[in-house]
Amino acid sequence: MTTKRIAACVGGGVIGGGWIARFLLHGWDVNVFDPAADAQRKIGEVLDNARASLPELSDVGMPAEGTLTFCDTMAEAVANAEWIQESVPERLDIKHKVMADIQAACPTDAIVASSTSGFKPSELQQGSSRVQQMMVAHPFNPVYLLPLVELVPSEATDPALVEKAKQILTSVGMKPLHVRKEIDAHIADRLLEAVWREGLWLINDGIATTEEIDDAIRFGFGLRWAQMGLFETYRVAGGEAGMAHFIAQFGPCLEWPWTKLMDVPELTDELVQTIADQSDAQSGMHSIRELERIRDTNLIGIMRAQKQTNWGVGELLNDHDERLKQLG
Ligand SMILES: NC(=O)c1ccc[n+]([C@@H]2O[C@H](COP(=O)([O-])OP(=O)(O)OC[C@H]3O[C@@H](n4cnc5c(N)ncnc54)[C@H](O)[C@@H]3O)[C@@H](O)[C@H]2O)c1
Fold it and tell me: Domain for residue 183, yes or no?
């Protein structure tokens, strides 16, 4: 008989809910601590979405679901957990308090990971006497479908626990990307913020609407990014002469005024209202839950297409199927 593995999810909002689903649907028992009155309802809705979508990625069937337990206290949630995932609001004072409460009650050899989008692990570790078990595990929404997790240790994190974290994340179908040097906002959010900032400028300057910007992404380079990313795409764009030729051709543009660089548009009430109105006109006919289901169905199609070419995320899904086959 194999012992059940226990994950504790502290904070069960958009991201915590996704983590709960990711672990639960891979057979882990999951303890949840979230004091919000509507936490159970919201988590239930995320789980409905996950149950309808995650199994669609697999050709071999998923393990039996684990047991979900809502706990009244932090101590109850984390006491026997092997993996503890903190997903509370992105404020350092809240994170410090929650981390202290977690570490007062959790096993000393548990992995204590934070979903933080921006804080460095060394910032989260301030004031802790057991820094060695703390790291960042930054996922992407929806956590139950998107495999990427940026795994960011600080110099004080135990390297053996980082290796263990990689194995656990892989076993639940994820792609741990070890960020070797901690930096504000890790890797992906730095890239995303550059694109987002330019998008805000294009609206601020009356060049494009939210819908036109989204079309510029989803009918073109977004599709390329989904399977080759940035640098491999540009390698191909360089033709037979390759990467060096591509840089020779487009490198000088970097010094032309193609972007606003680090300038940030002021988020005036007027700009925020313009964006909200345009977004309502673009997508207001769908509820958020409908949009989530449309998103999930599209993601499954895009990801499954790459299973056939055993490329990128498709290779990861095929490897995961093999692992699940051996387990089951
Ligand atoms: N939303 C995203 O796309 C995204 C993506 C990756 C990472 N993150 C990160 O994940 C974390 C959570 O973000 P979110 O978008 O899920 O926020 P959210 O507001 O949806 O959820 C936060 C949850 O934490 C709960 N909470 C508040 N105080 C708590 C406490 N003391 N103990 C336990 N639970 C508590 C709240 O009730 C809420 O359910 C942040 O650090 C954020 O940067 C967010």
Answer: no
pLDDT given at position 314:
97
Query: Closest ligand 1 atom, CA of 16?
Result: 16
User: Residue 189: CB within 6 Å of ligand 1?
Assistant: no
Average pLDDT in the 234-249 region? 87
Q: Strand 148-152 relative to strand 134-138: parallel, antiparallel, unpaired?
A: antiparallel
Instruction: Look up the domain containing 234 and give its range.
Output: 188-327
Q: What is the residue with the minimal CA distance to atom 28 of ligand 1?
A: 88
d(CA 306, CA 245): 29
Rounded to whole angstroms, how far apart are CA atoms 77 and 72? Answer: 8
User: Which residue has its alpha carbon closest to ligand 1 atom 31?
Assistant: 98
Contact between residue 139 and residue 11 where contact means Cβ atoms under 8 Å apart: no
- Is 6's C-beta closer than 6 angstroms to any atom of ligand 1? no
pLDDT tens by residue, 152-189:
999 999 999 999 999 999 999 999 999 999 999 999 99
Q: Examine the fold and report which residue of 124, 159, 178 is the final residue of a domain before the chain moves on.
A: 178
CATH number at residue 316: 1.10.1040.10
Of 290, 142, 313, give the one whose Cα is nearest residue 227: 313
Distance 228 CA to ligand 1 centre (A): 30
pLDDT over threshold 60, residue 1: no
Q: b/e string for 185-224 if b means 16 or more Cβ within 10 A? A: bbeebeeeeeeebebbbbbbeeebbbeebbeeeeeeeeee
Q: Is any ligand 1 atom within 6 A of the Cβ of residue 33?
A: yes
CA distances from 92 to 31, 116, 133, 158 (A): 23, 9, 18, 22
Q: In whole angstroms, give the CA distance from residue 168 to residue 7.
A: 11
Integer Cα distance of 36 and 42 in angstroms: 10
Question: Ligand 1 mean position to 86 CA, how many Å?
Answer: 8
Overall domain count for the chain:
2
